[in-house]
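Re: Re: ligand-bound prediction request (bumping)

Still looking for help on this. To restate: I need the protein modeled with manganese (II) ion bound, output as structure tokens. Inputs repeated here so nobody has to scroll up.
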Amino acid sequence: MRLDIAVLPGDGIGPEISAAGVGVLEAVAARFGHAFRYRYAHCGAEAIDRMGDPFPEETYGVCRAADAVLFSAVGHPKYDLDPAAPVRPEQGLLAMRRRLGLYANIRPVQVFPQLACLSPLKEERVRGADFVCIRELTGGMYFGEKHEGADVAWDTNRYTRPEVERILRVAFRTAMRRRRRLTVVDKANVLASSRLWRRVAQEMAPQYPEVEATFLYVDNAAMRLVQDPRWFDVLVTENTFGDILTDEASVVGGSMGLLPSASVGDGTPVFEPVHGSWPEAAGKDIANPLAQVLSVAMLLEHFGLADEARAVRLAVQASLEAGVRTPDLQEPGRRPCGTREVARWIAAHVLSGGAGGAGG
Ligand code: IPM
Ligand code: MN
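Reply:
Sorry for the wait, this slipped through. Here it is.
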């Protein structure tokens, strides 16, 4: 298969994990006989510095022309400390999602057995947890009408029926392919927008009789995620709640550096880690590349390359087993590995099909 992939490394640790992702794609191409072509483009703080725009037109053009986008991370502390900054790196990510029409963000959470002991939760509670968060990505407060005055400010949590229907359709269908349990997370006891979500979900449920749909208030869902993460199968929610809950969910498995995501909708799909740009670690070769590498697996799966995706996931598992781990995952007394070393090991494992040659 031929694929044109737009690569957006962005800021902080972005370029390092991006290189890891591309290295793994190259290994997949070599092993399975595919031709992947990469076009690099700017985004985030580095694009503001260069071109004054966190998502320049040129980048948009590269994304639109591509089959998929491999995105890494954006963000820089100089903007975090300056709430008055006229443009912010994060706007680049939001512009990309909005302009490409990527309304569904899919964030699978799986606890690797090798890492269950690293979870901040009790191991026996997280072992075997396996669920998917589906976050609405182009509506709600992120994009609703805003006002920012000196003494009063607001954001509007606006949703339309078609916006709610299309994301719920993704959620019901995802549930059909899994354990058929869908949890719709809202705050319908307080918010009008949530009541629309609940109404639409209740109307749609009879179309998916095999799916057991349950409703949880977001505060309760936040609690259940740490009390009993294994309870979840597919969770769907609006943009802001999804942002918050997926950070919470991401550490269930032991490290934030593990959670990949796919953003899909009308335009070119984007594959990106859930974690941010971790500027303090930039250039130090300590960032965990696994979320990016697992995003590559999601990319491959998106194009029907199931064996290829499996090979990548197996290589990730094998690296954990072999103790080839970045500092956030390493066991006490064992040498932590660098970003590049982990990435090379995984690429070599993919290339050889695990039949030796992946020596760490
Ligand atoms: C995420 C991030 C972004 C978001 C930021 C960087 C704008 O936190 O992808 O979860 O809030 O959506
Ligand atoms: Mn987030």
